[in-house]
Design a protein that fits this description.
The protein is α/β, with parallel strands linked by helices. Helix content is 36%, strand content 24%. The protein has 3 domains: 240 residues, Aminohydrolase, N-terminal nucleophile (Ntn) domain (Glutamine Phosphoribosylpyrophosphate, subunit 1, domain 1, 4-Layer Sandwich); 192 residues, Rossmann fold, CATH 3.40.50; 154 residues, Rossmann fold (3-Layer(aba) Sandwich), CATH 3.40.50.10490. The protein has an 8-stranded antiparallel sheet, with helices on one face. Strand 5 and strand 6 form a beta hairpin. The mean pLDDT is 94. Bound molecules: 5-amino-5-deoxy-1-O-phosphono-D-mannitol. The site of 5-amino-5-deoxy-1-O-phosphono-D-mannitol has 15 residues, from helix 9.
């Protein structure tokens, strides 16, 4: 949940660290800090607040001058956001930054206290710093290895030892960490965008590996201190892709990038008009015998799974369950040999989704990961892998990752339906051709609906509560619409299956309460309309998101505002209909004076349970 960086090289270290941290602020932004070797002394500057507050403090106190250092942007887990709980944390001879959670920190703290150590923060991280200092024997690698053996939980650490002012050490277990290299300099970072300004070349640190960074390069050992040879990777994201490019926020930039993201994700997976997932390890032969599918994910990714369930069941007639990963992993799920478990994750590092993947593998089920971040843990550990090629998603609120997750779910459902022979080749070609039209359809909605969404957002900003309703695919989609709005606007909102309202929830409706109804499926439009009439007659202000075909049959006055979209293949409508919901959320957030890229209490990558 936090972002860590480190640098060794000729540049001004404080500047490099702060600049790299700006690319990781999405991982946490309640405090920030850096530590730099300044004349062989480790000088630390840290503060509660955003990176801007750290920059102000560096001006105030004078920035550390040096060429070796580490930095951190925090999403608090242990201890409130405060100056003292901010990273870096130190023992007498060691200073560290940490991303992750140490599960046995209380035992370790008690042990260290019994040895006369005192603590100034409430963090689990300070315990690691003190333990490193306690165990320090003059050899950093031996010390790190012996501390790793004591730690339970997840960690990516950047470490500086007072006696080694020319180097930074790094180690990881579970939490992500990369080591960037360029001529005469090395970097560590929690994610690739942090180093792109300086280099595209990096190594992925594996679990329990330790890296030593000097100006001459990076060296790696395993936890037994045996040398490890690693493959150098090259990022195919450029800086511009990771920057705002003139947009006021990443969220709107990423909404605008959706047509391209769909194209990039879908086109390489089509051959002769049919899905071709061979490069992802998926063939008709390999998937034809699955009898049950479990889709497991968190948040937005889980909502993409909800759409996937409808589509797979409808086309391939295979039963699909959708689980929240944090529930799945603790409920002894009924899966095993012959079943397929699909894990969906933008970051590929979400702790619960990763644990669910490992659990699924233990049961003997085959696993398929749908992941955006290249080389992430989930991507590496799954049996089969389809990358969503959305590029870096920086805004905390997921938009282009969701739309590409949907695109992949469709491709997979088409392929499965072919394998199961529940659709003909011609029908599959027709569906693929409709999918290929989606980038233009999404562009059309951005071009034609944005102004209306902007206007409707001005009507939502004073609401305290909101409901999203829909049936079938529209219900699955309304879950995502509701999450998007609540996370970036802080307006309480729920999504409900429209037909279920009468069984309790309709009592919430009172005069002026906004209800956003999604109605894109002509087979059930009449049913949804009845539900809209029910809420409208009880005082709701209805915002209806529907297709032009559905709009044709509407009576005047059925809704207060209608966002009308061109009709396209109905099974694929979630891809287009999500766009107005994203735009509504974005503009409501902006109108309420909130920074949609950094909603309070949230972090982009949830690498702790
Ligand atoms: O990285 P993941 O896709 O595994 O993250 C899962 C959720 O935390 C994520 O989808 C979250 O709900 C969205 N960022 C919300 O917009």
């Amino acid at each position: 949940m936090c972002g860590i960086v480190g640098y060794v090289g000729p540049k001004d270290c404080s500047d490099v660290l702060v600049s790299a941290l700006t690319k990781l602020e999405y991982r946490g932004y309640d405090s920030a800090g850096i530590a730099v070797f300044d004349n062989s002394e480790i000088k630390t500057v840290k503060t509660k607040g955003k990176l801007k507050d750290l920059e102000d403090k560096l001006v105030e106190t004078g920035k550390p001058e040096g060429h070796v250092g580490i930095g951190h942007t925090r999403w608090a887990t242990h201890g409130e956001p405060s100056d003292v709980n901010s990273h870096p944390h130190s023992g007498a001879r060691v200073t560290i930054v940490h991303n992750g959670i140490i599960e046995n920190y209380i035992e370790l703290k008690e042990f260290l206290t019994s040895k006369g150590r005192t603590f100034i923060s409430d963090t689990d991280t300070e315990v690691i710093a003190q333990l490193l200092d306690y165990k320090y024997n003059g050899n950093p690698l031996e010390t790190i290895s012996s501390v790793m053996a004591e730690l339970k939980g997840s960690f990516a650490l950047g470490i500086m030892f007072r006696d080694f002012p020319d180097r930074v050490f790094a180690v990881r277990r579970e939490s992500p960490l990369i080591v960037g290299v360029a001529k005469g300099e090395c970097f560590i970072a929690s994610d690739v965008p942090a180093i792109l300004k300086y280099t595209k070349n990096y190594y992925l640190l594996d679990h329990d590996e330790i890296a030593t960074l000097t100006k001459d390069g990076a060296a790696f050992v395993d936890k037994h201190l045996a040398p490890v040879q690693k493959d150098l990777k090259t990022a195919d994201w450029d800086m511009e892709a990771a920057e705002k490019g003139g947009y006021p926020h990443f969220m709107i930039k990423e909404i605008y990038e959706q047509p391209t993201a769909i194209k990039t994700t879908v086109i390489p997976r089509i051959k002769d008009g049919l899905p071709c997932l061979e490069e992802c390890g998926i063939t008709l032969e390999k998937i034809k015998d699955f009898k049950n599918i479990a889709i497991v994910a968190c948040g937005t990714a889980m909502h993409a799974g909800m759409v996937g369930k409808y589509v797979i069941e409808s086309l391939a007639r295979v039963p699909v369950t959708v689980d929240i990963a944090s529930e799945f992993r603790y409920r002894d799920p009924i899966i095993g040999k012959g079943d397929l478990v699909i894990i969906i994750s933008q970051s590929g590092e979400t702790a619960d989704s990763l644990a669910a993947l490992r659990l699924a593998k233990q049961t003997g089920a085959v696993t398929l990961a749908i992941v955006n971040a290249k080389g992430s843990s989930i991507a590496r550990e799954a049996d089969m892998l389809i990358y969503t090629l959305a590029g870096p998603e920086i805004a905390v609120a997921s938009t282009k990752a969701y739309i590409t997750q949907l695109s992949v779910m469709y491709l997979f459902a088409f392929e499965l339906a072919l394998a199961k022979q529940t659709i003909s080749t011609d029908e599959c070609k027709r569906l693929v051709s409709s999918l290929l039209k989606m980038p233009d359809a999404v562009q059309n909605i951005i071009d034609n609906c944005e102004e209306k969404c902007k206007y409707i957002a001005t009507k939502l900003i004073t609401a305290d509560n909101l409901l999203y309703i829909g049936r079938g695919l529209d219900y699955a989609l309304s879950m995502e619409g509701s999450l998007k709005l609540k996370e970036v606007s802080y307006i309480h909102s729920e999504s409900y299956a429209a037909g279920e309202l009468k069984h309790g929830t309709i009592s919430l409706i009172d005069d002026g309460m906004p209800v956003i109804a999604v109605a894109t499926q002509s087979a059930i439009i009449a049913k949804t309309i009845s539900n809209i009439v029910e809420v409208k007659s009880r005082g709701a202000k209805v915002i209806l998101v529907c297709t032009d075909v559905c709009a044709r049959d509407l009576n005047d006055g059925i809704a207060d505002h209608i966002i009308e979209m061109p009709h396209s293949e109905e099974l694929l409508m979630p891809i287009t209909a999500v766009v107005p919901l994203q735009l509504l959320a974005y503009y409501t957030s902006v109108d309420r004076g909130i920074d949609p890229d950094k909603p309070r209490n949230l972090a982009k990558s949830v690498t702790v349970e």
